[in-house]
């Protein structure tokens, strides 16, 4: 089966899957898009979409049972009863184990695009842009001329700290590993060991990317009045939000930014990841 | 009259004047803030505010007659009847001639802070950030990896093009003067003569800062589907908005961004401009 | 006379004029190059070169009398006796008045390319790169991680400060005008008023672009041991070099960098400037 | 043994070890520096230096036998006969196995500072600066406005590509891994797969960091006339230098740059690496 002759069935999901379908079409693939009646004139029945070689579901495949979350659908996208049709297809989703809990025995055919390094690296971009947008939107001051702290120098931390500098903020980055701290310094940022924030009171903007409780009561108490904390770490995040509220500190827990601020880019990232996986598989 | 002993009366306006008052207080000045009952516990009567040495009105001083636009006031801020109290004060506003049309004979005492080079340069920052925010918010794609065009290399064009590059866009800048084009190239942007856009079809994001009709029907027809035009030039702007709508091109005419996206920074810019003017005057 | 049919005679000079000749040839012009026997197989007699429409001499046209400085010539390039042949030609040089002191009465035909804004802007680039090279070469430390001071925010100061930041230095820029200081801050540099250097002792690298005595004894005494001063201002420069030597401070007075570090780029800058002038003239 | 009470004996080496000694002294350690009579007034006998807790030799410990390469020494620094004194000391060098081939049985006491991640990361900076300096120095054109290719996106490639962009070059970076290529794109560089250079003819500057034959005859033939190749990969490098010479292509094989362009920084990198190792050991 040559990858450039594959047909794709996209089943439900948000605008990312809509743009995924468009991107695949633009690249010459045959695509059936199911569950987007409100958005698109590409429309089809579930049964017909399942006739494709490759099936793509949202990151979280099901809302309840075998029903796919489809905010742009007029009819429910439900896979119940189609167990046989799925056999032998390649099925892409994000949370593979959630799919398998409904369709046991399909371990071999089920693939995750969101586990892939390439996917995470590329999604750091829309995440960082979403964070920048929140910082402009939800503060009373400009990023330019502000002092900002980025906690964590993983993928998002790396992209975000460069963008903040590009906007004219004076950026401090925190990390735990000494080799990360060497890179931080060499990339001309101020570096500080995560948790050991000697100058916490100076920051106007604080971004957290570390999935651990970093900003507890003790730290929150040292934060400057008027500062904004944007937490990008997945739930429960790295900030004691209740305590922050009590102390009058403005916080935003910003999740799932790629689909929100750049669904087209996010859809194209899914496309390139899926095509990479298929190509290797093909190889 | 030594400038560090001056007292200030701030009369009406939006959040910028609120933050102007805070900034002046932080710098040790005595301030009376009038017309912000909904926002602040600094509150006072018009008559009392007028007892100050320096009076500050919004950029556009009056809404109708001698009434100051005061969205955060509970009582109207009206200067009618106070003609005598104003004599001999220094009065700051933006549109000086609008103030003088109500208060003739005060030419000597009335000063504009918005005519000042320093004010315009500094306001380019919140304007550019507002434009970045719109670009993230109102497009389906990321700035990073996009191709963008900035028309005009004045204050806003200079700041905006650097920020777009800092976000990872591939930036082309247009200007008319050959020395501006030399600077554009030397600052490592693609340069093009304004109006002579040979590759208009390649841009995802188009920002206009030139107050002249640049994007007419002929040009709009060459713009890529899905592209976003953000016009920052004061009304009527540089885009044929009706034609764009007909052609299905998304446009945003973004005006007065500083007060919207960064009222605190904008208030501090007003403060530093006013203090500069007073200092020179004092000298 | 259409500019694209012009013939050029290049008479003497250093490698810049050699590359000027190459650039003109590449652009399709007929060129006679005189005084470069040691470098080139394009070679010709003075008399023959003077038969061209446009004549180009070095920035400083004569070494002594009417003899052109020609380090790559085997025979002297001497214009004595050719007064009549020069009449009616366009003659380009840098120091126009030096040419006219030998050839009086040619005011109309004699043009300076180095007086031109475009020429100065573009030459800021090779000057700044030469300064960077000296800083790498003549110091014991890396630019990355250093603290540097750039005095003056004119053309060279603007280009140099960006390059230093691009290399990873923490850059402070000095200027006198408050609008320049606003730009410095907004471009995310530390700004300081020229002469009022409160933290002179912190800098590892000091670059001067201001043609006035800035670094006198009092200032030199405050400079950190091991620091390097690179003076880019034309003679006598802005540093008390003798006093610096006494104090054991390393200084470099770096002049005429474009011709030294990037003669090809410098020659192309001369070409584009001359062609711009001819085009306008033609216009 | 508390690390802050340690005494250090530095034996031979180039300026890096001289600056290492100065840095340790500045940090309050007792240091004996041996083999630098021509440079320093810190001077001592080999036997006395060996009385220290920690001994530091150059990266390549011996020139011949047990003699340490010491370009700044007046007397030979020879460790022959001191086998017993070395026992129980901590000995730092770069090439540990070369030291052990002369002093067998000292495996436990002998440590390499150059094997350490932190050391390599930090040394990427002086290496990249040395490459920039060569590019300015050995080409006829400016980096600003040039098109450059950086082969390899390891430590040196990362630092160098940022610096080249900071100087105003249009930078393409090559890598083999797809996740590296994702990072390259996201950092706003042009990306290309190493070896698959579709546009080799466009580059003015080519930097190689990959220790494998990349620029063979076929590739060299496609390189633009006047371009400069700077090879930073350790011997034998990644360029067919003989073939390049035949083809008239200018090449530079630039090795050991840190010690040459920034011995002070290089010495401080050795210091911080050694202190990190001792601290962990101590821990």
From TrEMBL, chains A, B, C, D:
Top-level taxon: Bacteria
Leader peptide range in chain numbering: none
GO terms assigned for molecular function: NAD binding
Domain D-isomer specific 2-hydroxyacid dehydrogenase NAD-binding: 140-233
Domain annotation Dipicolinate synthase subunit A N-terminal: ranges: 8-103
The protein's name: Dipicolinate synthase subunit DpsA
């Amino acid at each position: 089966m040559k990858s450039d002759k594959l047909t794709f069935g996209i089943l439900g999901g948000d605008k990312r899957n809509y743009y995924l379908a468009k991107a695949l079409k633009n690249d010459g693939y045959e695509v059936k898009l199911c569950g987007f009646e409100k958005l698109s004139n590409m429309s089809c029945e579930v049964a017909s979409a399942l006739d494709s070689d490759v099936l793509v579901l949202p990151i979280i495949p099901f809302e309840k049972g075998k029903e796919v979350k489809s905010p742009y659908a007029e009819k429910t996208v439900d896979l119940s009863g189609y167990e046989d049709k799925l056999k032998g297809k390649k099925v892409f989703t994000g949370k593979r184990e959630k799919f398998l809990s409904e369709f046991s025995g399909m371990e071999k055919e089920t693939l995750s695009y969101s586990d892939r390094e390439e996917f995470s690296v590329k999604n750091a971009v829309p995440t960082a842009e979403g964070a920048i947008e929140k910082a402009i939107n939800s503060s009373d001051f400009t990023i330019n001329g502000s002092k900002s702290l980025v906690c964590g120098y993983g993928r998002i931390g790396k992209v975000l700290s460069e963008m903040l500098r590009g906007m004219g903020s004076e950026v401090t980055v925190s990390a735990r590993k000494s080799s990360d701290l060497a890179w931080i310094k060499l990339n001309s940022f101020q570096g500080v060991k995560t948790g050991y924030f000697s100058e916490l009171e100076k920051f106007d903007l604080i971004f957290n990317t570390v999935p651990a409780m970093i900003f507890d009561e003790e730290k929150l108490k040292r934060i400057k009045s008027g500062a904004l904390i944007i937490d990008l770490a997945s739930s429960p995040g790295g900030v004691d939000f209740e305590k922050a509220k009590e102390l009058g500190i403005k916080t935003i827990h910003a999740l799932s930014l790629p689909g929100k601020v750049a669904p087209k880019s996010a859809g194209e990232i899914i496309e390139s990841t899926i095509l990479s996986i298929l190509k290797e598989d093909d190889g």
